Structures are given as C-alpha cells and as structure tokens.
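Collaborator request, handled under Task 6.
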Amino acid sequence: MSRCLYNSSFRTFLNTDENSIFGLLCERYHGEALTTTREAWKSEISIMKGVLNNFADKQGQIIFEYDIPRLGKRVDVVLLLEGIVFCLEFKVGETKILEADVDQVLDYALDLKNFHKFSEDRTIAPILIATNHRNSSTNIQMSVYDDRVVNPLMTGKSGISTLINEVLERFPNETPVNPDWIISPYAPTPTIVEAAKSLYENHTVEDITRHEADKVSTDAYILDVIKTSKDAQEKSICFVTGVPGAGKTLVGLDVAVKQTYQGQDEPIEEEQAVYLSGNGPLVAVLTEALAQDNYKKCKDNGEKKKITDSRREVSKSIQIIHRYRDNMLAKIKNPVENGVLEIDPAKAVKMAKSGFGEVEHVAIFDEAQRSWTHKRLADYLKRGGTYGNKLKVSNFPLSEAAFLIWSLDQREDWATIVCLVGGGQEINTGEAGISEWIKALNEQFPHWNVYISPKLTDAEYAEGRVNELLKDNSNVTYSEDLHLSVSLRSYRAEKLSAFVHALLSFDENAATLYDEIKDKYPIVLTRDMAKARKWLHNKVRGTERTGVLVTKESARFKPLAVHVLPSGDENAVHWFLDDKTDVRSSNYLEDAATEIQVQGLELDYTCLLWDADMRCENSEWHFYKFNGQSKWTEQFATTESKQELQKYMLNAYRVLLTRARAGMVICVPTGNPNKTVSGFWEDSTRLPEFYDGTYQYLKSLGIEEI
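Structure tokens returned to the collaborator:
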C-alpha cells in the first residue's frame, strides 16, 4: 500500500485537472470512500489549487492523505516547501475551532517529529483549517520544547496562503527537505493500545512498530517452534523474557494474531491461538479500546453493529485467564480423588484432534511470573472463586502453572504454550514466579519440549535457580532469540530499565545512568504535588496522556489531594481511555492508579507519588504497612512470607517507575512538620523523617529538582 493517495510537485498539481486528481484519490483509497470523504476531497483539491497558485514558482511537493501508521490515520495534506513540513488538517464546512481538532493536527506533527526519520530535524508547522472560520493565527512561534514543532496554527480557507507565507518569513534559510521524504523510514513505538488496534484490524503491526531485530527474530522463532510442534505432533513451551517495556505483550498479541490468520482474512480452522492474561485491567482496557475502535470504524463505513457485538467479537482473541481456566475446571471430576485431576466424560465431549482440550492449539500467557501458587489457587477454588466462578473444588492438587500446562496437554495432537515473563515484577502475594512452571514441567510434564531464554537464569527470574531446576531436564533448548533487550515503551530512553534497576538496588552506576538518559528522557524530583501537576500539564501536548501513580501499600496521599482509583476493571478503562474532557480520565491527575491497575499498560508522562511504605534509611530500603488508623509498622524479613512481601513492595516501585513513555516526575512529600499547641505532632502518620531519607537518596543521584 502506498504511503499516500496522491503526491506531485506544485507545478504538476496546478497543471492537472481537478477531476483527475480526485479520481486518483478514489482509485487508490483502500475500500469504498464515504460520500462525506469524497466531498471533502473535492473541496480540498479546489482550495489547494487556489493556495498553490500563489507559490507556482516554488519547488515544492504536495501530498494528499499521507499515512501516519501509529495513529491509524492520514494527514489530509502535507506541503514540503522551502525546507519546512506543513501538516494541513481540513474541517470542511466548519466555522468553529475545536480543541479536539487542534490536538489532532498537533498529534500528526509530533508523530512525524518523533518517529519519521526525515522529519526529526525539520521545522514542522501544523495548521488546522476550519474552512468557514473567519480569523487566522497571528502569533507564529516554536513550542517551548525545543523540538522545532511550531505551535498549532488555525485559519479559514481564505487565510491559508497568508499563513504559509508568514511561516516561511518567520523561519527562513531552512535546508531542503530530503527528496525521499515521502518514503522515509518510520520507526514509532506505539502504545500497547495502538498496537493492539492495528493488529485487530490489519492482522499485522509491521507498519507501526520499530523494526527492532530482537522483536522480529523473537516472533519468527516462536512461530517456528509452533510449526515444528505441529509437524512433529509434539507439545512445546517457550519462555520469553525482556526488559520492562520491551514489548513482551506486543509479541504475544502479534504471535496470537499471526498464528490464527496466517496471512489470510479469516481465521484458519484448527490453527487458532489465544492471548491470555491474569491482568484484569490490561484485558479490560485492551478489549474496550479494540471494541470501541471496531464499532466506530463499522459505523463510519455504514455497517449496522452494536458495541456489544464488537466487545463479544474482540473477546474471542483476548481473554482473562480465569475464564479459560474455568472452562477446563467445568470438565473435571469433582471432588478430586487421590490428588489426581481427571476429565469427567459426562461433562465434556471428546473431539477427534483436540481431545478434551480447548479449541486453540496455542495459548500465550502474559506475565507468566504472576501465575498463582498451589496454595492460592486451592484456597480460591475451595471457597468458589471471586471472578464469577461459583464452582467449588476441594483439595485442588495443582498450581495455576501446572493446571494450564495440564489443560493444553489434554489435546491429543499438538500444542504450544508461550510464557511471557517479566523479571522482578511479581507484585501480589500468592504469585508463584517462574519456578512453579519449571517445577511442573520437571515433575508432571517431562514429555514437553522446553525453549528458554538464557536470561531466565538471571537473579530476578526464579531467584536465579533456573539452571539448577532444569539441570536434569533433557528437553531444554536455550535461545537468545527469546529475549527482548530493548525497551520500546520509553522510546527516548532505552536505558530507563537499567537506571530503575540500579536505583532500586543502590547500584553505584545509578547516577551515571541518569546522566545518560536525562536529556532525552526527563526525570525530575519535587516535594510538592502542585509543582508535579504543573510539570505534567506543561509537558503534555495533543492527546498525550498523564497520570499519577502510587503503590497499593501507599496510605497517606489524601492530604495531597490525591485519591486512589477504585478497584474494578471499568474504572481502569475510564482512567486509560477517556479523554481530557472526562473527569474520570487519568489526565485530571486526581485519581492515582496502583501497580495492579497499570502493569502492562503505559502513559506518556507520569507522576510517581512516593509514600512512606518504602523508605530509604542508611542506604537500605525499609518496608512499612499502615494499619489504616494511626501508625506504620515496619515489615522485617523474619519469615519467608515477610521476605515475599518485601519483594512485592520493591517490585511495585519497579513497575511504577517504568510506566512512562516520555518522562516522569517523582514526588516525595515533605510530610507534616507541624505540632499542636500542646507540643504533639499534628499528623504522626506523615512525619518528615518518613520521607527525607528517600528524597535525599534520589537527590544524591543527581535527579533535577523542580
């Protein structure tokens, strides 16, 4: 598919009949253009004919409907003129300038600046044209961000030529634009929501993702394992590791879609894959985003469809892991006898190939390190569950990892499991980590082939015991292709994850790493939430998202006018997807999300509010829990469960420190230093000493204070 629907020199455009240009736009458009779109094209062609008559002697290019893959949209018109890139967005017939429309054209300009190779060093001028608007912008200036993007300009159709001339006069002597601008390399890093939309609609993300060698090779390696398993009629499992933000979830979604469709428009019968996650907010946000996008596109195309139909359609490909598990639980003999799971033939139909298993040959389990321990799953099933499953199963014998392998093992032909593993990201009591998967493979499923990332032997995975756990397993293959080493989330700072790791481990290299990333990826420090909010508001542009983050163990944030986002997936959906006109949106900086709600997702800019639950004291982290009333109690590592709790609390900050794509502010409060007239603390739960050590440590790393 062409990167645009039409492009030519100014002279060629002016000498070509309007109907011919219109015909080319219609011919090259993918699908049937709506009547409103066709009428808009006619108006734009006519308007631009008049505009370019004033620049007929200039060497320039005009481009209609230039593709912006990351946004899934096209710029109405791009002009390449005297070294400047003009992005023109038309609102034909409109008289008013709307904020959402200004954001739209600014988004186009920022996307070109950040991800379009031949635009990164160019002056870019976004212009919104409400054709019947009577006024034009008079103040032409660069943004305050020193990135050569002009603040958005607004005009009606009669003021376009004058505005372009004024921009040229304001920024003279620009070097010529690369003649291959239109086919420039494009290297964006989409949010997981943007990537999922492209996958769902187009069955590929190749056009919108950075072509990082490790991601491409990881996809290919996994798909090859799947093919090998099919050809040999074997069972296989892959463990994929990656630094925070490296795109593990995207790899999982990509593999699921490619395996299911295999280049076709419809799913391949008996070849399906399913993406599963125990992360309720992630699944809810992805599902709703995809459903809304699908519903809108169908509506725009004149198709009759309900939003509930779109949600149902999407949920076939992306599911909460509990639903998949409950499907298999409904097939077992209950009660369980002698600690052995068995299928009850009265509850399930045996199929020729799938046996008693589910229809999918391939299951991708995201955040596999968060699978439940045997105890947590057994306790959950003993009481009948909390996710809609009221089936009580006493004496359940398996961990979640073992049960999921058992479920795929019920297939009588072949199966592949893909485990996406985040290091050091277990954040809930009862999360087993990766060792439980390996234990299950060793003890109960020795016939499964194991493909594993060498990084799984690092300390943050299975406490560094992977080699020991696998030493007697003869079916293990190690491959570097199963590790994602480059952070895609933070497109400006691929070393962010290394800095966060160093910060949390008191590594002496933390300050050096900060120096290496601070210019491209701003990280600043404050003790004032008002300053933090102002910093975020000043940073964000267009439809970029901001949000406040706290750990679930945080407790004393209300004095700072911060509330915790209530639990419930629907709240996460509003927080992540609603725009800045809705008070439920993250952009209002009122409701703070926890590590539970944001793991696997991201924002552009974040504020991490660092409470007194984890404090730096004498170059060590000390962990505290609030009793809900009057005091913090230190959690000493005196038992295995207390050690686990400390690990989860540390990992919570690891997750929150890696949620921002473009930059973050860390707010460590001052606490309350005031005393009553009687000499007692006004608030003994927020003493300055609870926070000062953490603040001093972060400042010692050189983090700039605002």
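The cover message to the collaborator said: "The CA atoms of residues 511 and 700 lie 8 Å apart. Confidence is low (pLDDT under 50) at residues 203-215. Please let us know whether this matches your experimental observations."
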